[in-house]
Every structure is written in C-alpha cells, then in structure tokens.
Amino acid sequence: MVVRVPPPSAQPRSRLRVLLASGAAALALAAGSVVPGMPLGAAPQQAQAADSGDKTLTVAVAQGIDSLSPFLAQKLLSTSVSRLMYDFLTNYDAKDNHAIPGLATKWEPSADKLTWTYTIRTDSKWSDGQQATAEDAAWTFNKIMDDEAAAQANGSFVTNFKKVTAPSPTKLVIELKEPQATMAALDVPIVPKHMWDKVGDFGKFNNDEDFPVVGNGPFILTDYKVDQYVKLKANKDFWRGAPKFDEVVFKTYKDQDAAVAALRKGEVSFVAGSPALTPAQANSLKGDKNIKVNEGPGRRFFALAVNPGAQTKDRKKFGDGNKALLDQKVRQALFLSIDRKTIIDKVFQGHAVEGKGYIPPRFPEYAWEPSASQTLAYDPDKAGQLLDEAGYKLKGDKRVGKDGKPLDLRILCHATDPNDKAVAKYLKEWWGDLGVGLKVDCLDDVSVPWFAGEYDLAFDGWSVNPDPDFVLGIHTCAALPVKAKQSAATDDFICDETYDGLYKKQLAEYDPAKRADVVGQMQSWLYDSGYMNVIAYPNAVEAYRTDQIKSITTMPEAAGNIYGQDGYWSWWSAVPASGSGDSDSSGSGSSTGVIIGIVVAVVVLAGGGFLISRRRRTTADDRE
Amino acid sequence: MTADSTPALVKQADADGPAPAGPSAARGPRARNTKAYLKYVAAKIAGAVVSLFAVLVTSFFLFRLIPSDPVKQMTGGRRVSAEQLESLRHQFGLDQPMWQQFTSYVKDALTGDFGTSFAYHAPVVDKIVEKLPATLLLTGTAYVLYSLLGIWLGTRTAWRNGSASDRFNTALALTLYSVPSFWLGLLLIIVFSVGVGPIPGMFPTGGMSAGDGASGFAYIMDVAHHMVLPVITLVAVGYAQTLLVMRSSLLDEMGSDYLTTARAKGLRDDTVRRKHAVPNAMLPTFTLMFVNLGHVVAGQILVETVFSWPGLGSLFYQGLSTPDLPLVQGLFFVFATAVILANTLADVLYPLLDPRVGR
C-alpha cells in the first residue's frame, strides 16, 4: 500500500518574496502618478495640444460619427461637426432663433413666391485660400438633387426645388415647384466644389482620410479616430471672427457615468447628456465648485401618440389599433386622467416643463398654449363622464363597451428609455382607476410594430427645429406609407383634410406672423384631436468646468442648451478660463511620471520573477 | 472551500479533460501512428469547415429575427422624405426579396466581402480590421495575465488544499467571478481615475490614448496607461475559471501513485509539483485556455463600453442597436470563426500532449 505523503507547507520565505515583489510593483505603478509631471489627485487638468500651450475644449460625447461627409451624416454629433466645418446659407440667431446671415447675406423671394435669390458674401474663404462663391452653393444643391447617393442626409430639403443656378459668384437662384416658407431654414452644409467634384461614389465617401479637411466654418477638421475622437482647430480667418479656443475635441465616452467621472477629474471640459444627464448625475455634480450644471428648456417633447387607424397613401387600412380610440371622447378621457404635474415631479424629478402645445416653449415664435376652456387638465371625474358618454360604462371595476368587451389597451414603450417605463406605471394605475386596462410592451426597437400599425398607444418624442415645418409635416397624408407596414415619414398615421389644408397654408405663407398663426391653429387641431398628447418638455441638462470654460453661449441665449444647437454659437463663443490649458493633460501618455512608474514596475516584476526562479533552480539532486 | 464543492463550470471542464497520463506520456504520436493522427486532423478540419458554413448561414437569419427597421433607425429623428427612405432601402438592398439577399450575402461572404456597413458607410471588413488590434491588445493582454494568474494560484491553492490561503483565494476568485464587470469597471474609474479620499486619480477615465499627438515610445506608454484599469477589470473577473479548473485537476493528480514514487525518490516537494503534477494537471486547463483564446477576438462588450475602448465588442454593440445588419453578420462570423479555429487548434494539438487522444 502506498502511503500518500502530505505536501509540506510552502516556505514562508518564498511567499514573502512574492509579496514584496508584488507590493513593490504596485507601489512603482502608483509612483507613476506622484512623480513630477503627474500631479496627485483630481485637480482639474486641461487637455491640450501636445505641441503648444493651445487652449483646448474637450467635449465628452456618447454618440459616434456615422460619416463626416455632410451628404451622409445623420447622427447629431456628425451634423454638429458639419456645422462647425462648413457654413450654411443662413443661421439662427442665438437669442430668438430668427434667421440671420450665414454664407448668404441677403435672401428674398420673387413676387410669385417661386424664386428665391440669395446674395453670397465675399469675405468667406475656404481654408485652402480659395474664395467661397455661389457656384459652390449651386453645385452642392444640384449634387443632392441629381445624385441619389448624395441625397441620403439632406434630400428632404430639395424635394420642392426645380432648378438651382449661380448667375454670378455672389448670386444664387433657387427656383421652386411650389411656394416654400422654409427657404431661410435650409440646414445644408455648403461644400467647396473644387474639392468635392473629384469624389466618385458619394455613398461611400466619408470625408475622413485627408486632413485637414477644406472648409469655411468656424473650425477646421484636423483629425478623426473612429469611436475615439474628432479634432477641430479654430479657423482664424472665419468671417464672423475667430473662435476663442484654439481647438475643440469631441471625445467618445460610451458610458455616461464614465463621462461624468472624466468631467469631475478635469479630463474633459464639457459633458453632453445623451439626451440629458440623469437627475442623480446632475445633483452629484452640483456640489462641485468648479462645475456648472447647465439646465435649460429642451427642444424635445415627450408625448403619447394614439393610433388613429393605420393606412397607406391610397387609404388601405391595416394594423390592429383598438377601435375604441377612434372615438375622440375616449382619447380625451385618457388624457384627462393623466396627472402631468406628478410625472414632472416624480419621473423627471423636476427636470422638465409641463406639456401643452406641440412646439416646445423654447421656440416662442411658434409655441402655442390651449385656452382655459380648451385645456385637458387632470380631471378623473370628467374622464369617467366622457367614457360613460362614449358608451363605456363601469361594470365592477372595468369599463365595458356596448359589445360587452372590456376596454383594454396596449402601449408601446422604448425599452431603452427609463422615462417610458416609469410613466407607463403611472398610466397603468390612473387608467386602472378609471376602469381601463393597460398592457405595456417595452421593446428595444418599436419601429416594426409601430409601422405595422399594431399598437393602440405609443410613447413618442421628437427634437424640434427652429423652423417647425418638418415636425408638422410628419402628420400629413403625404407622409403616409406607400405600402402597408413599410416605414415612412409619418409619425402616427394621422391624415386629416383640415390639418393638411393648414399645413399647405403655413408652407406658402411668407409673412412670419401670419405663418405663426396658422402653425398655432395646427397645434390647436392636434391638441383637440387627442391623437398627440404632449406630456412634458424634458430640459437639456449638461455640465461644464468653470475653471476651463469662462463663458459660453446657450441657445436660446437667456436660458438654453449648449450641445446640439441649431448653430455653432456654443463652441464658437466659448471663452477659455484664465489659466486653463496651462497644465498637463491628465490622460497624457507622454507623462514622464507614468513612463518612470511603468518602467520601474516592469523592472521590479522582472526582478521578483528572477528571484523566485533562482530559488527554484536548486541543486543537482532535484533532477530526475 | 474543498475540492468536493467545486462549481459546475469546473466539473464540466474537468469532465471534458482526459484522465491523467503518466509522467512520460507527452511525447507525441509515434511513427506508426502518424497516419492515424493525420486522419484525425483531417476529420477535425473538415468538421471546422462545415461549422463555419453553418455559422455563415445562421448569421444571416439570426439577425433578421430582430424585429427592426434599419432605415428608420438610421434616420431616427432626422428630417427625411418618403423618397429618401425608399432610396436608402434600395441602396442597402433591403427592398430585395429575402432569398435574393441571402444568396448575394453567401456569394459575397465566400469572397471575403461582408458588404457595406449601414451606420459607417464603409466596408464591414475594413471596420473589423480597423478595430481588431485594439481588442486583441486589450483582451489578449488580459487573457495572458488571467491565464498565468489562474494557473499559478490554482496550483498553489490545490497544493495547500484546505489551508487558510486556499479558502481565501478560492472564495476571492469566486466572488470576483460573480461581480458584474461593468460595475467593477465603474468602481475602478471612481477610485483610481477620479480619486477617492487619500487615493489619487492615477489613470485615465476612458479611451485608448490621450490623442495628444504623441508617437513612438510615448504613445506606447500612453496606451499602456489607458489599458491598466480595463485589464485589471478583465483579469479580476476572468482568472477564477482558470484557477478553479487548475485547482480541481491538480487535486485529482495529488493522490496519484507516480507522485508518491517521485517523493520516494527524494525529490523536493517543489520539484514534484512543478515537474510531475502540474504538467498532467495542465491538460484540462489547456482545453479551457483554448476555449478562452477563441473568445479573445470577441472582445468584452461591457468592459469596452465602460472604458470607451474602441474595439470589436463596442462595435458589435453599436451594430446591434441600429441594427447594422452587414456589420453584425460580419462580426458574428468573425467571432464564431475565432472560437471554431481555437477549438480545432486545441483538438489538433491535444494528441501531441496526450497520446491517448485521437487514436
């Protein structure tokens, strides 16, 4: 019988050596942070260009770039970068969003409203020294009109264009098929023809290989690493004046908590919420003396959309929306039993404004409010009364229709949006008290059941532009799908003659005040219909370091947002704080301290390993 | 924790491993067995090829099960006309019948073309090639470290089975194994990037480099600096598996007669462990290491996201959120191929380590 000899315990000396080696290595690593050049602690440190004391503004963004070609760019970050690289014909005033000169100094319609003439400025140069002219603008629009691949991003702006010409370097003429009031809101970056006419396939050219990229905006694109950063340097010759920061860097942080940590540390100057910082993040940052949390009226609305009966352009019905919702009284009853104030307080934790009209109040020119008699304020009793009138009586604790079926509804919610889920819980409770059942369907992508018309209600939201034409247009009959279940421009299958008539009227109305009045009527119609119930306008919540940014323009200027503006005001106007940019980058890999620390760690680890291996190279009697 | 209470994952891996071989077993196939070995290798490679084709077909249909409209997702919130939507559908081939999409997908894939990414407007292969080095650097480094740490600690804990250090190390490894990697990552960012109390902020909060134009050695050090926290996160949650498999297989060896013989020859305990017990106990661990090697390519979605590491993991996540069908199909194929190749390699090499396999 073989007796197993238990292994003796390991020699304490060996353990001690390993422990010492590990400890020394860890200390050496840490030393990398305490030697000169790598200051201790979370003192704010401004990222800066390696070669100089340039002032750099680093913006933490969650989104990546889909393309740096303005013909393809769809994402907010990409279009924001396009705004910095290229001038548009017109811009929006930071104070009140009214149209102001951009590349064009003047624009005027003909008497028949079908021809617009733009005067192109003479003091805008491309960054390669060439003059920007009307020819560049005409070429840009014609390319979008003629090349399907070049129309991916901005095709919607030219659908009503008949012809675009440049009779002289300072004169651009656009002929229209129908009158169009949005001609001072053409958000199309104008590109240099002499660079872009060499491009072969516009569907594949991403404008991200040769740097610096020739442009005429306030900044010049100098570098881009996919999903890492986008770098732009100030255009000192920009006609409106040079930006105050020498460089703007949009750095990708896929996790917003990590981005907030980077701001707290001083690695970035600004954190763009996506779309807003959470209340917890905002509150935690408010305690920091060097950080300002900027909260302004948002450009989004958060709403409930009702399926009015999905249909195609040629009025073929499809989908399975609950027929009960075709009754306006039922729709209004549902909205009378929503306590918006509670939602603002509990779900948005005060970081939103109570919803009223379709256009958020940050666009005062077009914002609309219901009259006192029109308002559908929280009133469960009245809601019950309306349901009774509509034929849905209470039997026990359920509302039952004339066909004997209980009134049970479904609501589509975005699984990725915590606000949807939280509001849905309240709706379930409030509508349950009313006797209406609610099933909440949370999906990662709601677009498939939505465009199949297989929903009763859905959480809805859009970012609104200074010109409201687009968000109004998504409720017209023209936006309906050609085929059933196919995605389309429509938002909610609304198709109504009255609304369509008003839409056409506002588009052909060139007088701003009269047009605003028609837009108000459209919102009034939407409100009364009960198809689109705006619950809240979530605030823009973002934060920046005051020890890096002394001042920055919000939009609207009085109180507004910084990231994702309809213009370049924020980054163009930002003034560096005195002393910012004078310290090392916290992420700088060229830090002597880090190098020394890591080298020492490697040496200590190697030494430790050598000592241990030496101990094991014992005498010859070890050998078999 | 004792050997009897090893978790399922260890027992599973252990069950897959071969029985212990004698001390001089690992000599490779002999001449008379060369033919048999080649036949065995050919069978394994054929199996891998069939698997790869199955993956190719599966990847096409799998991502079409996701209820989604890529075109609407891509243009989400943007001003688009019906004509633009139609044009986009046509450009991406989404207006073709499913069977037509499938045949062109297979035909193109066989020539190494996985199409053009919807979200990046660039060839899928280019995107993968662009992101692969970052992932290999991060997960490859972590893989080497957690494998070595797991083997070393697994050996130590098994050799001192039942001791305080065994109990502590096994419990710690299991605890870390259970910790969500993104949570641990965020914790490390808060403590070691921002700094807490007396602990200074030592490391960057995210990204792969400072992007300050550094080059050469300075750039290498910069990347290394950015790698520290994500690597620590991956190693912390990853070494337990190797530790437990190594520990379990070494415990099985420890009662073997050949070890008693070795000790009876008067060999030092250290030598008995390193030269006799560990090589045989390594066989199941070797299998596990190859399985893990296949996963190195797939990156780590959560850790790459928390640390904003620009690798394949975060690319896959972005691809799924559109869904960018060509991109996720291509990535899925690459990930699956890496696992199949790693397993095939393990199968091919195993008989060289354990002559009883493949005969």
From TrEMBL, chain A:
Where does the record place it? Answer: Cell envelope
Which is one Pfam family of this protein?
SBP_bac_5
Indicate the secretion signal residues. Answer: 1-30
Q: Where is the Solute-binding protein family domain?
A: 100-472
Q: Does the keyword Magnesium apply?
A: no
TM segment ranges:
593-613
Instruction: For this UniProt record, give its keywords in alphabetical order, as a comma-separated list.
Output: Membrane, Signal, Transmembrane, Transmembrane helix, Transport
For this protein, the record's Gene3D superfamilies field holds: Dipeptide-binding Protein, Domain 3, Periplasmic binding protein-like II
Family according to the record: Belongs to the bacterial solute-binding protein 5 family.
- The name on file for this protein is ABC transporter substrate-binding protein
Organism encoding this protein: Streptomyces castrisilvae
Q: Recall the taxonomic lineage recorded for the source organism.
A: Bacteria, Bacillati, Actinomycetota, Actinomycetes, Kitasatosporales
Automatic annotation (TrEMBL), chain B:
Record Gene3D superfamilies: MetI-like
Q: Which residues form the ABC transmembrane type-1 domain?
A: 132-350
Keywords of the record: Cell membrane, Membrane, Transmembrane, Transmembrane helix, Transport
PROSITE patterns, per the entry: ABC_TM1
Principal place of residence: membrane
The source's domain of life comes to: Bacteria
State the compartments where it is located.
Cell membrane
One Pfam family assigned to this protein is BPD_transp_1
Q: Where is this region: Disordered?
A: 1-29
UniProt key word Nucleotide-binding: no
Query: Has UniProt tagged this entry with the keyword Transport?
Result: yes
Q: List all membrane-crossing ranges.
A: 37-63, 132-153, 174-196, 216-240, 283-307, 327-353
So what family is this one in? Belongs to the binding-protein-dependent transport system permease family.
Q: What is this protein called?
A: ABC transporter permease
Organism classification = Bacteria, Bacillati, Actinomycetota, Actinomycetes, Kitasatosporales
